[in-house]
Design a protein that fits this description.
Blueprint (H helix, E strand, L loop, with lengths): L4 H19 L9 H4 L5 E6 L1 H4 L4 H10 L2 E4 L5 H4 L9 H12 L3 E9 L18 H18 L6 E6 L12 H6 L2 H13 L4 E6 L5 H16 L6 E9 L5 H12 L4 E10 L31 H20 L4 E6 L32 H15 L1
Parallel strand pairs: 1-2, 1-8, 2-3, 3-4, 4-5, 5-6, 6-7, 7-8
Length: 381
């Protein structure tokens, strides 16, 4: 049969949908983390000041797509909120709240009482001497009531006390402990509940898979609950490495904390790929070591073997979290992308680390799709 011009037109029209489809080189939109884990737990991230102020727009694109919970990395800590007694600075914290409200995000306040990143005045008088127990309690009350009260009904939950227990289970000899005694934890939770009776209240700490710390935190929370103190969840900081901790110990802590009748949250999650300069430093920000090339081996990028280990470690951790998703209410990454991670300057300033799910070019690492696949598999069962 002889093909006429009309036949060619007919074939083009008939085949156009297939032709258009074959020419469309755009990749399908990947599923987001918050969609994948929607039936399991909240997926959160920490925001730094540039993100809160809206100048780091590329990071915010990631946040808006992948996360449904946010926490301020630094701007709600006491040295930022009340640098001088009675002089509160809410300017950046207000912007954090505004961003969360505009984007309908679950918001966590971090942190009310912490021995670190607290202004010196909090513990001393005009002569530089330690204040009395009564004065410190009143300062705690005023700080908590003012901060929590300002965001009453807006912040969904607060890290009320941070890092009060050592790895061996003993009380940290902080200024709060030395001046007030262990009752400072009870008082902090009491003051926070007074300021916002509807807000959830959390205890947050690192190295929570260590047996000594696990037992110490369990003992502390049991004592608080026996006194009728409200505590809604325990935050297990996820500052971990490719080898430590053993995930079987991590699991023991998830179960032990859940058995207290509280939710469990994995907070501040990041996985360093860099060698550790010392043993058992946990996430103690007072630990600092000298920079040398041996401890900063990946300045030009990650070898495939390390990248594969990184993917495997995150996958194994999330497999464990999905296994216990009935106990876990939230998992929060400590930063949006590698370039903003505190791991680049702790415990050694100036290193190049790769601890988060998104790289320095704001691109999702392969591990993101691996975690989404794990969620999809778990939720099919």
């Amino acid at each position: 049969m002889k093909l006429t011009k009309s036949h060619f037109i007919y074939l083009i029209v008939l085949c156009f949908p297939l032709f258009a489809q074959s020419c469309n080189h755009e990749k399908p939109v990947e599923k987001s983390l918050k969609e994948a884990f929607a039936s399991n737990f909240l997926i959160g991230t920490a925001l730094n000041q540039s993100q809160i102020e809206g100048t780091d727009k590329r990071s915010l694109e990631i946040v808006n797509k992948h996360f449904n919970s946010i926490v301020a990395e630094n701007v709600m800590k006491s040295e930022e909120i009340q640098p001088k007694e009675g002089k509160f600075n809410f300017s950046i914290a207000d912007k954090f709240i505004k961003y969360g409200e505009e984007n309908h995000l679950h918001m966590v306040g971090h942190t009310l009482i912490w021995h670190s990143q607290a202004p010196k005045w909090f513990f001393t008088d005009a002569e530089g001497n330690d204040v009395s127990r009564e004065v410190l309690i009143e300062r705690m009350r005023n700080h908590i009531h003012t901060l929590v009260g300002r965001y009453k009904g807006k912040v969904h939950g607060w890290d009320v006390v941070n890092e009060a227990i050592l790895d061996n289970g003993e009380w940290r000899q902080s200024k709060f402990y030395n001046i007030i005694g262990e009752e400072f934890v009870e008082l902090a939770f009491k003051f926070a509940h007074e300021a916002d009776p509807d807000a959830e209240l959390y205890y947050n700490d690192y190295s929570m898979s260590e047996q000594g710390k696990r037992e110490g935190v369990v003992k502390m929370v049991e004592n608080l609950k026996s006194k009728g103190v409200r505590i809604d969840a325990i935050g297990m900081q996820g500052h971990i490495s490719l080898e430590h901790p053993d995930l079987t110990e991590f699991e023991k802590s998830i179960v032990a904390f859940s058995n207290l009748g509280v939710n469990v949250m994995v907070t501040e999650l990041d996985i360093t790929v860099l060698p550790s300069p010392g043993r058992n430093i946990g996430a103690d920000i007072s630990a600092n070591f000298e920079l040398n090339a041996e401890l900063n081996p990946y300045t030009a990028g990650l070898p495939d073997s390390i990248a594969n280990s990184f993917n495997e470690r995150y996958t194994q951790l999330f497999q464990l979290l999905l296994k216990h998703s009935d106990k876990i209410s939230r998992v929060t990454l400590w930063g949006v992308h590698d370039g903003m991670s505190w791991r680049n300057f702790w415990p050694i300033r100036g290193r190049k680390d790769y601890p988060l799910l998104f790289d320095r070019d704001f691109k999702a690492k392969p591990v993101v799709n691996l975690l989404i696949e794990e969620a999809e598999k778990a939720n099919k069962n």
